[in-house]
Amino acid sequence: MKKTKLTESAVWKKLDRQSQKIKEDSLRALFERNPDRVKDFSLQSQGIYFDYSKQLIDKETMGLLLELAREQKVKERMDAMFAGKKINSTENRAVLHMALRAPANAEYLVDGKNVMPEVHQVLSKMTAFAEKVRNGQWLGYSGKPIKNIVNIGIGGSDLGPVMAYEALKHYAPSDMVFRFISNIDGSDFAEATKDLDPEETLFIVASKTFTTLETMTNAQTARKWFLEKARNESSVAKHFVAVSTNTAEVQKFGIDPENMFGFWDWVGGRYSMTSSIGLSTMIAIGSELYGEMLKGFHLIDEHFRNAPFEQNIPLIMGLLNIWNNNFLDAHTQAILPYDNYLKRFPAYLQQLTMESNGKHVTLDGETVNYQTGTIYWGEPGTNGQHSFYQLIHQGTRLIPCDFIGFKQSLNPLKPHHDYLIANMIAQGEALAFGKTLEEVIGEGIEESLAQHKVFEGNRPSSTFFLEKLTPENLGKLIALYEHSVFVQGAVWNINPFDQMGVELGKVLAQKIIPELMNKSTQINHDASTNALIELFRQ
Ligand code: G6Q
Hints:
The protein has 538 residues and is α/β, with parallel strands linked by helices. The chain has 22 helices and 13 strands. The chain has helices at residues 5-8, 10-24, 27-33, 37-40, 59-71, 74-82, 116-135, 159-168, 186-193, 213-230, 236-239, 247-253, 279-306, 313-327, 345-357, 389-394, 416-433, 437-442, 447-450, 471-492, 500-517, 527-537; strands spanning 42-45, 48-51, 109-110, 113-114, 148-152, 177-181, 201-206, 240-244, 260-262, 332-337, 375-378, 401-406, 461-466. The strands form 3 sheets. Strands 1-2-13-12-10-11 form a 6-stranded mixed β-sheet, with helices on both faces. A 5-stranded parallel β-sheet has the order 6-5-7-8-9, with helices on both faces. Helix 12 links the parallel strand 8 (240-244) and strand 9 (260-262). Helix 13 crosses helix 20, helix 14 (313-327) packs across helix 20 and helix 15 packs parallel to helix 20. The two termini are 47 Å apart.
């Protein structure tokens, strides 16, 4: 494979050599040699305790990783992003999701124009609408208040809203129902609406482009479902609102632009949950708590922008990811939140990280000769412990883990929270230090079995400890990962902000749809594809 500047650089080669050294070392030994290790490799900022001392690193490694960040001009790229430069070069767009959560007096420029007044105009419009719905003042066509909110959207127009609702439903009114329809599979629509009364239901059609097949099909079905009961077209205005950047298409669908909440092309889909895509979240938790969530995001935006590299949590997260992926050959990253409300958080991060950094061509159009986009996956603890953790503990692969926990529970039922957090801490400890053959034998295990009970240890993890799952802390967590993705993309010299693969998905099925629907259409694919189409037609 062609060499690239990155892998030919002196620092990359030094990191390569460093990784050989670390592979021969162990976390047990590293902790023994440096009693201050946890102080050296943990950070406390913005109410977040970030312990990365159980990563397979030493001071030299971190020094080299920071040098790599400087060499790859992470700071310069970050400054360009915050300055509204069109760093999404393949789409010629600025990347300014940070403006969505900045205070009104901040300044974010796109083409020389400050976008903050527009951002806050939309926020005010969302606030007025959300509060009306929450107070029961927004009435349906028959005069009843709205009880059910159904968000129709997919990808970036779904994963943020559904994750945020699940994460924050403790703060939502218990007499309101929130549903999320994304899949083109009619079962998604049918199950989400089967127990709802159209008179009390509001649909939020969330689509940046307002042309996405899944969302438009579900929105048309919703309209039919609604009109079966409401009968009168004029009632649609009270039950359908749109979140989009495409006014013309929204109008074509029959939604009054008055009931449309806009956003901008400098907000990528997977970075859009703090744009008006967050409307369902605001209705669920109210505008005040929504404001606190925005504040959490903003605090981390500022931390990322201003904290020195050595103390910059998202920067360190991003660099550790590079280290694990490119130098220790750990190609996946487990996200293990020890909070059941965060059950959709791994799925949300999957899109954020993998859609962003799933690229094989550099910004200069060169094919890379190194791994990019780490595979993110996960489940909440303790459930995962009773299934896939086996492979993390004793399998042949290296799987770095991010543990996320809160000191206080939102439902302090004794003794659940102590047990939950004890499990989280114990897992990190066991992964790092394992159990030696001598220890197993010392426990009285007979020799023939002892080998099976050995835990090699040396399996890296980081732990994030926060006070409590509040809207503000959720905002902080998401922003940490957003910026860590940015750091990874900058080091790999790729564009984390386009998504050509997803765009391809949007057109691929278009050819086959008429072939399935009309049996007489000639089909001309490969033999396997033809057979599948024939089978469906029969
Ligand atoms: C996100 C992606 C993608 C997008 C969906 C929905 O970054 O581009 O997941 O959000 O395809 O697109 P629309 O919002 O345009 O319907």
